[in-house]
Amino acid sequence: MAPLRERIAGSARGRTVRTRMLTTMLAFMAVGLAVTGVLTYAAQFRALDQRVDRELWQEYSELALIAEDTDDEGRPVHSSVDSVLVHATGAAAPSDHESVLTFIDGQRRYQPSQQDYALMPDGSADSARIQQQILDAHVPGRTVIVSMEAHGRDLRVLIASVDVAGDEAQGIFVVANDIGSQRAELWRSAVTFAGLSVITLVVAGWVGYVVTGRLLRPLEDLRAATEQITVVDLEHRVPVPEGRDDVAALARNFNRMLARIHAGFAEQRRFMSDVGHELRTPLTIVRGTLETTDVEDPDDVRESREIAYEELDRMGRVVGDLSELAASKRPDYVRLRPVDLQHFGRSAFARIAHIAEREWILEREVDVVADADEQRLTQAVVQLAANAVRYSEDGSRIFFGVDLVSGPDGPEIHVSVRDEGVGIAPDDQRRIFERFTRVDAGRGGGTGLGLPIVLAIAEGHGGEVRVLSRPGRGSTFTIVFPQFTSAGHTGGRRAPEHRDGSSPAADDRISSQGRDEG
Ligand code: ADP
């Protein structure tokens, strides 16, 4: 089987947009021209038949006028059939395609001296047959139109019976119209139309081929360029054609998509390398410890065992946090619904207050409803509180608060955890949100993934995490996100609550807008 790329390229060449557009356009044009031609010429053939019969009846009405002609006293001018036919023949002015002939008592008589052709030319062997045909078709006392063939012509023939009162003779006035030659003319015109239609189709096809080729060239270039791009070579970009048309937009979007995929792949590679690096350390420690353990010495073995357990626990935590961090990239990681923040604040506080022996203070709570994911938010608060514990001393104070603040884009919710711990140097304050960043590694136990998860939760709420910190004085981490929901009633309320019952000094409180500690 051909390689995938060849197969794709082959199929694109087989039925390109260009051929599809051209065949569709030409098919429509061909059908249109054919229908137009057939309908037009059918109507023209019908009109020809009607016109020929009309002309024949016109000749007949001129004959009738002559036959009924009267003098000043009202007497008929013509008293014999012969007289009527002589005058009718003399007055007849046969048009092109017409021929006039008269009979009296079955004998051929007069015909105009000048006409396109003679119905019964002298000396023609066919004349007797034609005469017989006319006499057979003649109905005494009536006028009929019949079709007949004479001397290779298709004719419409009017045969009028001519009687004059007081004359026994039976006259016949014949007008023939060569409808065949007129039909042949129409056919020639139809064939010309068909020929011109074919030429039109060929020209349109050629022009269409050239024009679509020119219009679609950028698309073709784009296709060729996309074939160059592989998972290995994501740095390649397709050329963006000039102009502001769809193809240019497609090329730009394609490049943007490539950039995102490229960034995604790069991030994935970084992630893998970080993870590898992170897991290698405990493995090295365990291995090193085991290698240097004196198996004969029970104390040494016990100590090695403890180190191995510790490191395995650490690895377990890293793996757990990693899968949490991976999950946080999913769009449904945070599901917002209206949350009663007073209830949330109290239950979150109840939970963190048991993490470790500290003076826990619920310094602010608000009675509002906001769009949030209560479970994720609690998880973030627990993480911040665990950090506050880890980076502060036994017995120091940790403040927790939920506040409603009017921000530049509307009301914001601020959920903050403040400690009086070691603090973070200004240069490190941004870095700590990066994966596996630990500033103070001495305080062990951390995976360096806690803050990235907190940040993902804040971002899932359409918000961010703000840090205010001063080395040696403590840090405040605040999750800030928009309130959105209008279902809640506003009216923040401060409710200092002390686990140990004491009241916080006014200075201990910080504005939820934040200020540098100390
Ligand atoms: P860790 O598991 O190491 O705590 P985090 O992502 O939660 O990982 O935090 C990253 C780093 O940020 C920590 O190693 C620490 O240096 C710093 N940090 C986090 N919280 C605090 C805090 N409350 N006080 C001082 N430093 C902190």
End-to-end separation in angstroms reads 73 Å
Strand percentage = 15-25%
CA gyration radius, whole angstroms: 53 Å
Principal-axes geometry comes out as rod-shaped
Bound molecules: adenosine-5'-diphosphate
Number of helical segments with 4 or more residues? 11
Description:
- The protein has about 525 residues and is of the alpha+beta class.
- It is about 50% helix and about 20% strand.
- The protein has 11 helices and 14 strands.
- Strands 7, 9, 10, 11, 12, 13 and 14 form a 7-stranded mixed β-sheet that branches.
- Strand 11 and strand 12 form a beta hairpin.
- The structure holds adenosine-5'-diphosphate.
Any key phrases for this structure?
about 525 residues, alpha+beta, 7-stranded mixed sheet, 5-stranded antiparallel sheet, about 50% helix, disordered C terminus
Secondary structure: elements and pairs:
Blueprint (H helix, E strand, L loop, with lengths): L3 H11 L2 H51 L13 H11 L6 E7 L2 E2 L18 H11 L5 E8 L2 E10 L8 E7 L1 H50 L17 H47 L5 H30 L9 E4 H12 L6 E8 L2 E4 L1 H17 L6 E11 L2 E10 L8 H4 L18 H11 L3 E7 L3 E9 L9 E2 L3 E2 L20
Parallel strand pairs: 7-9
Antiparallel strand pairs: 1-2, 1-5, 3-4, 4-5, 6-8, 7-13, 7-14, 9-10, 10-12, 11-12
Helix pairs in contact: 2-3, 2-5, 6-7, 8-9, 9-11
This protein binds adenosine-5'-diphosphate.
The site of adenosine-5'-diphosphate has 20 residues, from helix 9 and helix 11.
How would you summarize what this structure contains?
With 518 residues, the protein is α+β, with helices and mostly antiparallel strands.
